[in-house]
Each structure stands twice: as C-alpha cells, then as structure tokens.
Design goal:
The chain folds into two domains: 124 residues, 2-Layer Sandwich (Phosphorylase Kinase, domain 1); 144 residues, 2-Layer Sandwich (Muramoyl-pentapeptide Carboxypeptidase, domain 2). The chain is 28% helix and 23% strand. The chain is built from seven helices and 14 strands. The two termini are 26 Å apart. Bound molecules: zinc ion.
Length: 292
C-alpha cells in the first residue's frame, strides 16, 4: 500500500518535470529543464530484476570523476598518454578552433566533446576559440612548475592536466575573462559535461586562483548538478557521499547517481534498464551514473 503511494508521487513528480520541460524546451537543456531530486538511500530504486556488478578497489582510481588536486595526485598506473594524440599531427580533429602551439596533446574523445560544444557556440556567433593546453605528461608538468613557478603550475602528478580530462581554452580576441568565448563557456559548458574548474568564488575550496580558461570534463549529469548547486568538484564529491543517491532530469534523459564506498571488492546493484557508467572519486569509493 505504502509503496503504491510513493510510486504515485514519483509519477506525479516525473509528470511535473516533463510538463515543465516541454514548456521551455529547445534543442539544449536549459535551467528550467533541469530538475534535481535528492534521495537519501540507494535502496529506493532497487527492483527485483536489477543485477549485481562487481566493484574492485582499482575502480576507485579510474573514470571521469577523479578528483586531482594538491591532496590527491593522479593515481599510479593511470595512463592517459595511451589515449592522447598530437592535434597538429591529426589535423582532421581540428575543426572550428585554433591551437596556441604545436605541442597540444588531447584524447580524441575529449576533442570530440569540445567540438560539439563550440559548434553550438558558433551558431551564436562565438567562434574565436583557441586550445592553449591539453594533456601534459610528467616531464612537461615538471618543466612548467620549474620555469613558471608554483603559483602558475602545480608539481607533476598533482595537476588536472596530467589526468587527460582538462583543457585550457583561450580566445584569439581577448583574455578569457573578457572574451565572448570565456563568457559563453562559463554559461553553457555545463550542458556538454564540462565545468569551469577553478571559479572566482571558490578559490578557498580549490586552493587555485580564478582560471577562466581551465575547463574539466566530468560528464552529464554531474556538470549540471554542480552548476545548479554551485559546487566545485571537491564539494560535489562530498555532496554525493552525504546524499548517497541523487536523481535528475536533463532534457529528455533521466539520471540516477549513486555513491558507494569501496574498502574491498564488493558487489553493487545496478538497474537493468538504462545505460550505466562507473567512475572512482580517487579517494574512497565509486560513483555509478545511470541514464534512462
Ligand atoms: Zn589548466
């Protein structure tokens, strides 16, 4: 009986979200199309036909949500260099943006997501994007740290650029804090899974000065929830740990996000419906993201 009442309210909420979304829908999700509902326990969505997957401790250290900062280095054994390519040597990847120099390395997967994003920017007349830095290996990071100083570059292994999921984006017209490219990315990048990693109002949390050029890929719905709740990655991962489960609707996609602590190899339950992705937090657990 009680279950049916809960189901009814869930349906009502979904219906409400859908109506709200329909009212203000365009090609891209917008603020009014984002609905966040917080649940306190992962068991709330467990159903009889769900299946179990094995999570091992190594999974804490893989995925798009890894936290890398002065306290959490890039995990040992992670090899982003196996995925990255030189953009200059792969000119078919360069589409709609310029390069600051010929040393830029990035994974084709990340470039693809970046290109999708700036294609939409171009439709609004924002077209002067430059990539000024992508993946940096340990030697490049060490060199930067030594020559530019600790304020500009973190030591090797502690920079997000060593993770392969970050890029520095500039404009050929002006500095990013004044350029239309910077403003556009600040307002829209969350729709494409990117976050402005070091915002002006979060320097005390990140320990890094405002960097209007540094964007990090975390994927949807994480970038949207972080934007909606004004959280940087450090805070978002803590938030997931506290809530254990968050669900949200973006555009036509419904997402469920779960945090599971991992101290030993264990089994976790995943719904059979929808696609799922698992990422570690580079600390103590994994985040399972399900899209329905
Ligand atoms: Zn950067």
């Amino acid at each position: 009986m009680k279950k049916w009442v809960i189901c009814f309210f869930v349906l009502l909420l979904l219906g409400y979200g859908y109506t709200k979304l329909k009212a203000g829908m365009n090609d891209l999700p917008n603020e009014s199309g984002l609905h966040i509902e917080i649940r306190n326990t992962p068991d709330a969505v467990t159903q009889a036909d769900d299946f179990k997957i094995k999570v091992s401790k190594e999974m804490i250290f893989q995925g798009d949500l890894l936290l890398v900062n002065k306290d959490h280095p890039v995990p040992d054994g992670l090899t982003p260099e196996s995925d990255v390519v030189s953009l200059v040597r792969n000119p078919e990847l360069i589409d709609g943006f310029g390069l600051l120099d010929n040393t830029i390395l990035l994974s084709p997967r990340l470039v693809d997501k970046f290109r999708t994003m700036i294609k939409d920017a171009a439709q609004e007349g924002v077209v002067h994007f430059l990539i000024s830095s992508g993946y940096r290996n340990e030697a490049q990071q060490e060199e930067l740290h030594r020559t530019k100083g600790a304020k500009f570059a973190l030591p090797a292994g502690y920079s997000e650029h060593n993770l392969g999921l970050s890029m520095d984006i500039g404009s050929s017209q002006a500095e990013m804090n004044r350029a239309p490219e910077g403003k556009w990315l600040k307002d829209h990048s969350w729709k494409y899974g990117f976050i402005l990693r070091y915002p002006e109002d979060k320097t005390e949390v990140t320990g890094i000065q405002f960097e209007p050029w540094h964007f990090r890929y975390v994927g949807l719905p994480h970038s949207a929830i972080m934007r909606e709740k004004n959280l940087v990655l450090e805070q978002y991962l803590d938030f997931l740990k506290e809530q254990k489960s968050v669900s949200t609707t973006i555009g036509e996609d419904n997402y469920e996000v779960f945090y599971y602590p991992v101290t030993e190899n264990r089994m976790i339950t995943v719904p059979t419906q929808g696609e799922y992705e698992i990422s570690g937090n580079n600390q103590d657990g994994v985040i399972v993201t399900i899209r329905k």
